[in-house]
User: What shape does this take?
Amino acid sequence: MTQLKIVTEIDAGLRQDWLRLREPILKALERLKGAYTENELFLAVLEERVQFWVEGDAFIFTAIEQHNRKRYINLFLAGGSTDGALELRKEIEVWSRTRGIDGAFMIVRHGVDKVMREKNKADGWDSVGVMYMKDFVQ
Assistant: This one.
C-alpha cells in the first residue's frame, strides 16, 4: 500500500523524464551487471536514496556514500550526450557542496574516458585508472 501511494504522488516531471529516457536508462543499467533492476532504481529515486539528474537527453544517477572520514557523491550511472552530462556534473557539484559532501567519484567506460580525459582534468578531477575522484574540501 505504501509503495502505491508513493508512486501515485510522484512528480509529473520525473515520470515524463523517466519515460522519455527509458531506453537509454535500460541500456545503461545493463552496464551495472544486475546491481539494480529498473523498478529498484526507480524506487530508490522515489525514496531519495538515489538522485536522478536530467539535462536534455543526458542523465546521471548519483548516490551519497559515507566513508570513514568523508562523504562522497558517486556518479554511478549516466547516459546521453557528453555536453549534457558535463552540465549536470556542475549542477551536481553545487548541490553536493551545499549539503556538506566532501567530494565526488565516478567510474566511466574506456571510450568515455578517452573523450572526456582533458575536460575532466581541467575540471579538477584526478584520474585513478578509469575512476575519477574530486575533493570539494581543500
Q: What stands out?
A: Confidence is low (pLDDT under 50) at residues 1-8. The two ends are 46 Å apart (CA to CA). The beta strands are 51-55, 58-66, 71-79, 103-107, 126-128, 131-135. The longest strand covers residues 58-66.
